[in-house]
Structures are given as C-alpha cells and as structure tokens.
Amino acid sequence: MTETDVTKPGKKKNAEPYWLIYISAILSGLLLIGYALDIGALQKISARLGIGLLFGAFALIVGRSRVAGYIAAGLVGFVVILTFFL
Fold first, then answer.
1. Among 13, 35, 47, 76, which residue has the fewest nearby CB atoms (within 10 Å)?
2. pTM of the complete model beyond 0.85
3. Tens-place pLDDT, residues 55-86
4. How does 50-69 read in b/e, with b if 16+ C-beta sit within 10 Å?
5. How many CA atoms lie within 13 A of 47 on its CB side?
6. How far is 69 from 58, CA to CA, in rounded Å?
C-alpha cells in the first residue's frame, strides 16, 4: 500500500454530506405532492422559486464545493422547473 491509499492518523478525511441529498429528495417529493394536491401556497410561482432558491443556497453553503451539495441543489432546482411543465 502506498501513502495515498492509507489515511494518515493525524489527518481527517473530508466526508461528503450525503444527508443533503436525502433532505433535497424529501423536499422535492413534498413540493411535487403539494403541487399534485393543489395546496394553495405551493401553486404560486414565487413560493416554489423561493423554496428552491433558499434550499439551493443552503445546500451550496453547507456542501462547500463538494459533489453532494451540487447534487442536492440541482435536484431541488430540477423539481421546481419540472412543476412549471406539469
């Protein structure tokens, strides 16, 4: 094994925040269910965009340039855009 294969005891490996992806999947599902059930607050375009932008910003800040943050923000953004075509 080389030095790159094994993490040194003094260094902590940065883990991906996969919980962001799970939360974005839950939020996306709630947005789609709310849209399908005609919940009044989610029928407004500004409400959907606001939810998407707030969570997208949160995911990108917490993700700190890691792939999980980009996936989480992209998933919610995709669902918000999808609701315009449903």
1. 13
2. no
3. 999 999 998 888 999 999 999 999 999 988 87
4. ebbeebbebbbeebeebebb
5. 11
6. 9
